[in-house]
Amino acid sequence: MDIKALFRNAGIVTLGVMVSRFLGFGREIAIAYRFGTSASKDAFEIGSYLPITFSNLLVAGVFSAVFIPLFTRYLCSNEKNQLQEIISVLINQFVLLMVVVLTVFYVFAPFFIKIQAPFFDPERFETAIIIFRTSLPSIFFLGIAAMATGILNSLKMFGIPTLGGILFNALTMGFIIIFAPSMGIQSAAYALVIGSIGQLLIQYAWIIRYKLSYRWTPRLFHPAISEVYVLILPVVLGSGINYLAPFIERFFGSSLPEGMISALGYSFKVSQFPIGIFALAVSSVVFPCLSENVICNDRKALAKNLKWALQFVLFIIVPATFGLLALSLPITRLLFESGEFTPYSTALTSNALAIYSLALIPWSITAVLVKIFYSNRDTKTPVYVALVTIAVLFTVDIFLVKAFQYQGLAFGSSIAAYVNAVILWVIMRKKFQCIRLLALARTFLSTMFASLLMYAALFLSCAYLEKTLNLSLKRIQLLEVSILVILGISIYAITLWLTNKKELKEVMGR
Question: How crowded is residue 96: how many other Cβ atoms within 10 Å of its Cβ?
């Protein structure tokens, strides 16, 4: 796939994910309005974490990292019937696995909540258990949806999976808006289940169209699947370890005053907005291409595609980092401050958001780098790196939470993110030697220069508007953020075009 096609597909995924993320923010705004940074919201953060994490583990872990190369191999060799058999066996295995996992989760729900929040009071503890059990079916539906995403991505179809994400967020937001007044925080747990069913159905319709849907078979094993089993465990461990970071935050955060876990949750979701729209979109688009390059032993194309992905990420994420750093307060206030979400909640959340923004660059680079390891069937290295990262995170959190409370936990995540990215880069260079740091030097320096100019302008402009505008009105808050965002984008885009027009056009495939 040429650069122009990569850019086009990345644009499709980015647009779809952007719509999905905006709807996701609509859901978070609805939750914030009704529950703010209350005890029930703390309980939801803990109770929903394992189901959401388990589902994401299947999307970003097994079905993305292991089975996309497998699916691609059979599609490249034109063995569609055999691929349908493999998919059917996978579904059989997954159903049996879910019966065991969901039963264990349901029965031992108090234990799983206790290990996440050992310092919760009885009320928050019981509420978290109810939410945990209610949201468990979403794991099954999102797991099958993740498999459908892997199949469609292998077919170089990226729009339909993003449409599934849009439907998921639209359904969850609508359900919460309608039922939260009568059902309370449990409405958010039921919304996860309803949304996951919608995300599965819309993707599965396209799987049927391409004749790769489930076909009844009593088989539970297939030689092709057995070949990749050795790769699955490292991927699960590696992806699971990455999800331990928020787990560690919640573990330490459960000892902090009410609302601080919620503030971390809101700020983390906002910080993931540019990553989900751009970094994950680019990595999902480039991954099938990297796998194909490895299968065809085309090292030149592999290096070219990897460089394109990293350049694309840097052009977007570096300014996003400085933008969130400068505008964390007005953005948080605009998104969440109403109802039960008070100015105190805004202060808590915006402080954490500013710190999380420091981790955007390493998080995004890591999202791309792990794909080069997976495409080369190396699923163990990311595990070892993730283990080191978690050890660093746990160590720094012990000290930082005492000194800075919840802000220390956010800062610990940022430190660990840089450790993770640096180690992955060093190992990638030694093992594959497909791209040098100097190849990205011009991209990084030009984006940093443009972003620093943008940050200075935003900092001064924001300080002026905060003093002169009546920010108690929502429309004025929207006006403030709109002015600042347009100003920031304009300064960054013009500066970047003047300093690095050549590479910018190359990334766009022109």
Answer: 11
Element (H, E) at 348: helix 343-356
Let me know: does 235 contact 63? Beta carbons within 8 Å: no
Query: Does the pLDDT value for residue 60 go beyond 60?
Result: no
Q: Rounded to an integer, what distance in angstroms lies between the CA atom of residue 432 and that of residue 436? A: 10
Inter-CA distances, 482 with 4, 451, 476, Å: 31, 18, 10
Q: How far apart are CA 323 and CA 346, in angstroms?
A: 18
Q: Tell me which amino acid residue 286 is.
A: V
Q: Which two tokens stand for residue 333?
A: 């206030």
**Alpha carbon of residue 492 to chain centroid:** 25
CA gap 494, 414 in Å, rounded: 29
496 in Cβ contact with 322 (< 8 Å): no
DSSP alpha helices (H): ranges in 58-212? 67-76, 80-107, 109-116, 122-135, 137-154, 159-183, 186-209
- In this structure, the chain runs to a length of 510
Q: What is the distance between the alpha carbons of residues 207 and 201, in angstroms, rounded to a whole number?
A: 10
508 in helix, strand or coil?
A: coil
- Which of 20-24, 30-34, 414-418, 488-492 has the lowest average pLDDT? 20-24
Average pLDDT, the chain: 84
Determine the Cα–Cα distance for residues 258 and 263; give it in Å rounded to an integer. Answer: 10
Q: What is the pLDDT of residues 388-437, one digit of tens each?
A: 988 999 899 899 888 888 889 989 989 999 999 999 999 988 887 777 77
Q: Tell me the pLDDT tens digit for each residue of 433-455.
A: 777 777 788 888 999 999 999 99
What amino acid is encoded at 213 in this protein? S
Task: Give the single-character DSSP code of 437.
Answer: G
